[in-house]
């Protein structure tokens, strides 16, 4: 009876607001449900109360008096800025809610020592790390240098290998472990990264001065010496004019590499950085041997003290530039902001442990219902995607078409980005050798050491079971940007669509949504990420994450080029995102909105829900603004013009349209 009363009240509110009925009519909405009562924590499943409250939220953001056919973003998101601050989007707000839950968890554990979580060592280590971060005062960057292990001698490669253990490897000679395909990592050796340079700040200079007991040139003199060094390194590392696009990465055995580059003891350097003695037959990747040879020869003759200072300075700059290092923007200790900044830092640096805590304390209870819904929608989309490809409207050759179909069929989803089918014991073993104390600087370096030591172990292991677990998700490194944690994305090397926790909540997703709301965002989001698998960036990766020549074949197809050129209407277009927007939206519509009656009764709500992802979204280096993306994608869909009765020639119902796949 309580639910029925609330349902009636909300319907009365919708009707009483006049313009809202016109904007989002609810009389004939499809209220079917993908869940049964037994699969939800509430009764009944897919309650009208939940859905109608969400519709009310959508109406707060709308300006229904505007013409949707002229500017749908203004129509659907026109009031967003009056409700939320500048720079806030649906995804950033979702991420902030995740941060707040972590803060509440750690503050509770600090004040309730008998909480059940204290019985698990993982929580104890997370809590000590959090407490050390909260206790930070004025930055003392010298502390990072003091924590580095002592190495005998003063050879540039030895110090570089030590810094590499903490994930820094961008200058002189780059040695890193990188994922190679869906089931393999490899050691990669590359020349100095001439795209990145040092900006010697006063704080870094002061850390060097204190660490060397004042035995330094002036800031100005040292900066000039570093610039001269960088200029020399760039001249050696930068490819000759016209050759920058040539493929120079090749596979070598360690013995072959030693023969090609004899001026460096590669066995010793790899042991120092990666913690193992590799046999001469061990295979690795190396790029541009002539540049490496020239760099190593120069570095062996250069001023060892200058090379050491430069390495320390670059390492400190790297640490300060890691996403959400609380030292980069220190705040008063024990303030709410400091707690949030510490949690944001921990989510980057302690990715797997933090995800485990969130799963156990918050998300686990809704996983079963979510996976039932998401995997069901994903299966529908995959079936429709394969059907569309088999139509072969671009006229692809049979071999290429079969390869793309295999890639679509091999797509997987990981909700929450955790390893599949593992126990709590797995996580306890993962953190067994992770050392945490009371000093933030030591804790930060130890967390980096723990991550990169594990990466090196994963690269060389022959344990098939271990590989299967660790390649079932994307084990994020500390350098990844916020948008990877906040929004779903396609992971090309694993053919996995990652659905982060931030997405798995209102206003974008709820397992109990009615179909128009569920498909309005979820199907479009999944469709977008699925289409990334064959966009202009990622099409060359096959179902196993191996690089192929698919794009070389596609550019010989006149129909493909015509479709690309239609979308690529200016030099500022993020083409791969536009392909995913257009084709993903088409895929979602073909999956859910094929029935004209469904469009008539549910179309407006479907498209307004779709808009929520874009409300407030600013442009970045990968994406256009939310308004441009939303309007452009929907203008290519005749179904949108049909639902909103847009006259031909209006911005949202153009005379000519682009299509793809």
UniProtKB/TrEMBL annotation:
Keyword terms: Hydrolase, Metal-binding, Metalloprotease, Protease, Signal, Zinc
Pfam families linked: Peptidase_M13 (PF01431), Peptidase_M13_N (PF05649)
Keyword Transport found: no
Superkingdom classification of source: Eukaryota
Domain Peptidase M13 N-terminal: 69-416
Required co-factors: Zn(2+)
Topological relation to the membrane, as annotated: Single-pass type II membrane protein
InterPro entries: MetalloPept_cat_dom_sf (IPR024079), Peptidase_M13 (IPR000718), Peptidase_M13_C (IPR018497), Peptidase_M13_dom_2 (IPR042089), Peptidase_M13_N (IPR008753)
Intracellular or extracellular location(s): Cell membrane
Residue intervals of the Peptidase M13 C-terminal domain: 496-659
UniProt KW Signal keyword: yes
Cleavable signal peptide: 1-23
Predominant place of localization: membrane
Gene3D superfamilies for this protein: Collagenase (Catalytic Domain), Neutral endopeptidase , domain2
Protein family (similarity comment): Belongs to the peptidase M13 family.
Name assigned to this protein: Endothelin-converting enzyme 2
Lineage: Eukaryota, Metazoa, Ecdysozoa, Arthropoda, Hexapoda
